[in-house]
Write a structure and sequence with these properties.
Layout (H helix, E strand, L loop, with lengths): L13 H10 L7 H11 L1 H8 L18 H41 L29 H10 L8 H9 L5 H4 L5 H9 L3 H11 L7 H22 L16 H7 L6 H5 L7 H11 L3 H15 L6 E2 L2 E2 H5 L5 H12 L7 H4 L3
Antiparallel strand pairs: 1-2
Helix pairs in contact: 3-4, 4-8, 4-9, 4-10, 4-13, 4-14, 8-10, 9-10, 14-16
Amino acid sequence: MENITDYDKPFLTYEEQMDLMESRNIIIQNRDFTRRALSGLSYYTIINGYKNTFLSQIGTDNFIEGTKFDDLYTLHMIDTNLNTIILKYILFVERYLKTKLSYIISENYGVYTNIEDLSNCNPKDYLFRGNYSRSAYGRNNILLRIKETLTSNRINPSVAHYANDKNHIPAWILMTNLTFGLAIKWYSILKNDDKARLCTEFIPESDISISDKKEFITIAFSLLREYRNRIAHSNRTFNVTGLPVLPKRQLLTLSRNALSPDEYNKNFGKSDLFAVILVCFILIDDRYILSNFLRDLIYILDPYKTIVMNRSTILKILGLPENLNDRLKQLLLEKFSDINVNQNNIERT
């Protein structure tokens, strides 16, 4: 083994880490607080995780004059809290998909599946190949993967109970053992009529064609799944790149003026954090859940709305509009015209 004595990233004590920060123009106002933060959250999490917002030049380790450790710490805490909220409401969309999908399958194809039949050739089985689109890419493999979850070592208690104590495992129970990604794949192989019905349940608007609904739903699911996978592994909730791009026409219609054509053309709100929030507001058809979503966002972001870091507000750093609250309130008003969206039912004081 090569004998390396000059490591790229040598161990540094907390004192040495603080000295390194100061050499890079980071102001430490309270060394005791900074030491405790480093001992609990780590230098890498706080500094490396958010440094691009504060660097004087990308690709260097020199921070803009006036950058405070407290700023990086605050941004990390906002991001962590926002991460929890976004994951929570993406999970609601996942539940919506699984519920609607299992309902359509059960109503049309029954509640029976043979755990041992991995070929899915039994017409009485709701996972029978003939129940799904012949032209769908990977249909047979997707059905096999779904069936295999029933005999995997990671079977959940609900499925185990039905497998051991009931005479069948209905789709709504099987669904509890599936990942969001595999549920999306199940949706992708539905026949045209089944897929159209599911899309219309998510998007009942009559002024959007079925083909446009299918396009939007497919990309929206992909956006939420990829975004969730990224932030679930301790990545930032903002400045996430390489995500699927939502189709312009449908997004502008469904977001009900929460996003402008000019903003979309400037790559705002079509494949970023704001796009994820808009998709959740579009696909969740429950005024109580969405009012809570807005309340949660207000609770997290409002205390910091006047704070400026590196000449930018917190909302700008996060890639969100400055009038986010107003836009989402209006979207709620238009989505549920009979709901009373006011300070008392969506804001915490």
